[in-house]
Amino acid sequence: MSNKQHGHPPKKSVIAATLFPRITSFSSLTQCLQLLILGFILAPLYSHATPDSSINLSLEEQEWLALHPVVSIAYDGYFPPYSFLDNDKSIDGFSPELFGIISKKLGVEFSPYAKTQWKELYEDAKQHKVDIVATMVERDERNTWFKFSDPYIRKSLVIITRDDNTEIDSKFDLKYKKVALVSDYQYAKRITKEFPTIQPLKVDTMLDALNAVSVGDADAAVSFIGAGHYYRTKYLISNLKYAAIYDSNGSPESIAVRKDWPLLSSILTKALRSIPEDQLQALRSKWLPIDYLQANRQVRLSPDERAWADAHPTIKLGVDPEFAPFEFFEDGQYKGLASDYISLLNRRLNLNLEVIPDLSWAEVTEKAKNKQLDVMPAVGMTEERKKFF
To answer: Using CA atoms, how far apart are residues 367 and 374, in angstroms rounded to an integer?
Structure first.
């Protein structure tokens, strides 16, 4: 008779067959239990927050995020105000706060990497010991190891002088001046190449450069405006100003992603583009100086106009040396209302309108007729002059 007919409980093998119909042996049962345990282990990986629907991720990108709920990220701990170590040795700044926003949008955790010295974290990132680097300038040689997002930090390179300095209104005024430059900074080499007549004062840190200007050991320093503002504020260096813009778009920073994770690069670019402009502006206002926009308030030229200006690095001015108060020379310096406008044009247009000295007005008009001078800033228009100008 069957067990069922006698009311006895079914044998264990029957129970197993009922729960797992395909199991036909003890080894099969063991495999199934292993799969169940694996499922419990993997379940948390799929319980992360759902990415923001406004980001418009592809199915493949969504699947990638589901499989990578934690991504390691390296921050340069000595790159204020973009990323730096605070008094508690925790990472702070513009980039960490931005990644807090991205983390919520994507539903992933960005785990800070322990190393914060640039040389160390950069080498580790090349070896995939860390997944992404928060700030990196894209260069050809770096494309061997990294995929880059859209640039998200655009750093203006500015000239910083003492408040009482009236001689430097544009980068072209750096000629023959003593300029404090941080030895290891890439743009220091660029500046000495573009202006070989400057007197470079090599220093170890940006704080050293600003102190040199503050106490009069240097005429100017060149700095990214965010870093300059950070050190001026933190160390209460109050007698400095932004005198001019050296480069309004120097070395834009992107997110660098390990080369074998191209999907993450596209995901981060989409996340950056999805952040509302007002939210980004609030973040910039918090971390970047208030006069950031004022210092960057240049006239935007068309591509053709900018190309023309770049092709004419020096524009020769002919001035009337005895036309006060409009223009005149005083102790060898160009002065007057016209000179103020010329200084303003140099700053706003990033031009080099250069006065040619030691010419009488008769010589100026004659050279201008012969196209040996380019501009006469304060001249009355007559029918005769219309033939030439």
So the answer is: 9
Q: What is the reported pLDDT for 32?
A: 52
CATH assignment at residue 63: 3.40.190.10
CA-closest candidate to residue 134, choices 185, 96, 186, 107: 96
78 neighbors 134 (Cβ within 8 angstroms): no
Instruction: Report d(CA 357, CA 333) in Å as an integer.
Output: 9
Q: How sure is the predictor about 34, in pLDDT bands with cuts at 50, 70 and 90?
A: low
Phi, psi for 358 (deg, rounded to 5)? 60, 40
Q: Which of 22-31, 154-163, 177-186, 222-231 has the lowest mean pLDDT?
A: 22-31
Segment 305-317 shows an average pLDDT of 87
Residue 89: other Cβ atoms inside 10 A: 8
Q: How far is CA 7 from the centre of its chain?
A: 79
Return d(Cα 61, Cα 68) in angstroms, integer: 11
- The rounded distance, in Å, linking the Cα atoms of 131 and 98 is 17
Q: Which two tokens stand for residue 71?
A: 């991504």
Quote the CA–CA distance of 165 and 173 in Å, as a whole number: 12
In-domain check, residue 296: no
Q: Which amino acid type is present at position 112? A: P
In DSSP notation, 139-164 reads: -GGGGGTEEE----EEEEEEEEEETT
Per the structure, how many domains does the chain have? Answer: 4
Instruction: Residue 282: give the domain boundaries.
Output: 53-153+253-287
Same domain, yes or no: 258 and 117 = yes
Separation of alpha carbons 117 and 78, rounded Å: 7
Is residue 376 a part of any domain in this protein?
Answer: yes
Q: Are residues 269 and 227 in the same domain?
A: no
At 220, give phi and psi (nearest 5°).
Answer: -160, 160
**How many Cβ atoms sit within 10 Å of the Cβ of residue 220?**
30
CA neighbor of 227 nearest in space, from 99, 135, 131? 135
Per mean pLDDT, which range of 44-53, 263-272, 299-308 is the poorest?
44-53
